[in-house]
Amino acid sequence: MPKQWSTKDLEVLKPVTELRSGIGRFHFTDDYSVFHYSKMPDQIPQKGEALCQMAIYSLSLLEKSKIPTHFIRQVSERCIEIKLLRHLYPQKNEIRSNEKNYLVPLQVICRNYLPSNASLHRRLEEGKVKLSDVGLKKLPAVNEKLDKKIVEFTTKLEEIDRFISYEEAQDMAKLSNNDFDNLINMTLRVNDVISKHAEIRSLVHADSKIEFGFDDKRSLMIVDTVGTPDENRFLHQGINISKQVFRD
């Protein structure tokens, strides 16, 4: 079965249907998770409030840049209201072409740097991926800014997230060529917005995880949250100040 844990609690105010988006609320908790081990037994005091505020600010930055998101409004210091989408499982063949109101079953990784703990290093060593697969002719130095951003895909609605090819990603989500191009272009735009803001705060934005969905008009939008240490790897003077600290 696909994993269902989250460090945010979801409250459904208006259920999503095939014809229209629903409305829900994310309640940010002090829980955290590492890799695929679900929630850890301890908590981080005030994590929920901090991540909620960062998420609100980052989603607002995207909206100002005319990048649509599922964010509706702030409810409290730990809660936001969002558009709800259906979870359709590709492994059950539940997604049809031109489907509306559904979560795109992919996580999109955008890399600006390759810090030593980036998973790409391990996958290269294990022979699971080649430099040419990610558009590289040689391996850059650790923390050297990439000449060209690397975009990769993992599954989203499986028990264990796994990296997949562009072809499998497009087929799994039932995306047309135009949809797929839009998704990649929007990924790069989101990445640029977060990177520019990080630079203002004297941070290096190494990489990000971005998720997408289609609304009731089949318009692509950003879902979940962005610009927080849970979704983005930030460094300050080479030191991780993101979720990577707990992974290490």
Brief sketch in words of this structure:
With 248 residues, the protein is an alpha+beta fold. The chain has helices at residues 47-64, 119-125, 166-172, 177-200, 244-247, and strands at 8-14, 22-28, 71-76, 79-84, 102-103, 106-111, 150-155, 163-164, 204-214, 220-223, 232-236, 239-240.
What does this structure look like?
The protein is globular and about 50 Å long. Helices cover 24% and strands 26% of the residues. It contains five helices and twelve strands. It has helices spanning 47-64, 119-125, 166-172, 177-200, 244-247; strands at residues 8-14, 22-28, 71-76, 79-84, 102-103, 106-111, 150-155, 163-164, 204-214, 220-223, 232-236, 239-240. The protein is of the alpha+beta class.
The description of the largest β-sheet is:
8 strands, antiparallel
Mean pLDDT: 91
Number of helices: 5
Rg over CA atoms: 18 Å
Notable traits:
globular, four-stranded antiparallel β-sheet, single chain, eight-stranded antiparallel β-sheet, 248 residues, 24% helix
Topology (SSEs and partners):
Elements: E1 8-14, E2 22-28, H1 47-64, E3 71-76, E4 79-84, E5 102-103, E6 106-111, H2 119-125, E7 150-155, E8 163-164, H3 166-172, H4 177-200, E9 204-214, E10 220-223, E11 232-236, E12 239-240, H5 244-247
Antiparallel strand pairs: 1-2, 2-4, 3-4, 5-9, 6-7, 6-9, 7-8, 9-10, 9-11, 11-12
